[in-house]
Write a structure and sequence with these properties.
Helices cover 68% and strands 0% of the residues. The chain contains two helices and no strands.
Length: 41
């Protein structure tokens, strides 16, 4: 399964990329990268 960052945000955080702040993006983009790596391997 290949999710986009926006799909992941909507599912796990309840916000889209258009609704998040820069602070949230910095924090959550790191979470997304870790989540994505673990789900691919």
């Amino acid at each position: 399964m290949s999710w986009t960052y926006d799909e992941w945000l909507q599912y796990y955080k309840g916000k889209s990329v258009h609704e998040i702040t820069l602070e949230e993006h910095v924090k959550w983009s790191n979470e997304f990268q870790k989540w994505r790596k673990n789900n691919i391997e």
